[in-house]
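REVIEWER CHECKLIST
Item 1: Sequence provided? yes
Item 2: Single chain? yes
Item 3: Sequence as submitted:
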Amino acid sequence: MGSLHAITNVYAGSTVSVGKIRLQSHTVGARQKEPLDELFSENITAKIIRTAQKHLSNNNPPSQYPHIVPQTGPDVGQYVSKGIDFWTCGFFPGSIYSLLERAIKYPTQLRVKEVEVQSLRSTLENLGRTWSDPIHGESRLTNTHDLGFIMMTHMKPRWELFHDEKALSTITTAANSLYSRYNSAVGAIRCWDELVWTNAPHIRSMDENFIVIIDSLCNLDLLFYAAAHSGSSHLSDAAKHHARTLIRTHLREEPTACRPGFSGMLYSTGHVVNFCPQTGGIKEKRTAQGFDANSTWSRGQAWAILGYAQTYTWTKDETFLHVACGLAEYFLLRLDMAPSCVETYTSDGTTSGRYVPMWDFDAPVEADGIPLRDTSAGVAAANGMLILSQAFTGLGRYDMGKRYLKAALTIVEETILCSLASERAKSVTTGDGDIIGVDELEGSTFEAVLKNATVSNNALGYAQIRDHGLVYADYYLIEFGTQLLRLGLA
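Item 4: Structure as written out by the authors:
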């Protein structure tokens, strides 16, 4: 992989020095810039700023938050929003704060003139607070398990960058709200109160049913973080119980599956398990967004990789590390095994696309022969693998650290090659010193950074939301770049 050519490891006793990824700057006459350069491009920053400014029109303070960008139809290229009570509301302010962290800590990676850095910081900080502030009130929600997604993406950087006491208080409140959904008999946190969005028989009664989905693993980070800052060990205990329960109930051992260089068990994932709330027994297994109950929905697999990697970093329990690796290896195996139609030729005659996952690893290819992908699954999984790389490097297992770093970078690089929106934006400094985002080519607008994300394509669903830009695909792409900076790899 071209952009990895400068990654090196130098061992000295128990320490390791990891060379930086060479992200080539594009200049006239130089070789074409590397795909991973796009992680730090003006295009990304300009798109986020433009969307943040534009979607405040008749929406300030915000009550509607960017969600999807259709690739076809009457709203093509424009964000379609969801209400503040929807689970994705935190991702857009999260993208703003991830960029703001770069502006504060890594200004040389902003790709802007030095005199514009302060204006960019000011613009991002003001927009970040504007989009984040209304979400404080959501911390008291007790009807959702998604409080980690809703809060941690932007309240955590507010606390860590600015020592914002209100943000930390909101995190703690949200964690206690999430804990209120914990059931000790099940050993897990209730995710959905009911399941009514497919044509399968509905699940309604909370007295008789207890629905837990694989996505929930990514909300445990909220409980661990709040416990660490408040000393409330019941929060972290619940998170650990939940993670252990899902190993038994949502993960499927794949004893015949293997990848060279890995000797542990591989795991696939199911999506939905319905428990008896009194006994903790399993009543039924389903999917809501994947192909079927026995398939491996790619984003569900990605959520599990990320969630167990995060859980290991908090607990240092190697059970969670082994499970996260087994999940990552199965994700990579299914990418390796994908049909040849996933590969496309690039301008230099090479192929890309094998490591941009299909929406469900077991779903058939569409009738038109064009694979339906989910870029959000790929970049979420890559973030989990980056955590695994860091974990193994910390354990002195540098071969495994390099393994997951290379895998993560491969996924992100191919995602950029295949699915980066060609409609680009640029930043402009106004006469008042404000930064705005505009189309690089006038009239060519696609508000998301990435295309080809699929929320759900279950045939039994009342709606198939497929092949579009998606706010959390962009967030995990941006956060991946920021994490490379934190690790000194870019």
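Item 5: Key structural point noted by reviewer: The mean pLDDT is 92.
Item 6: Recommendation: ____
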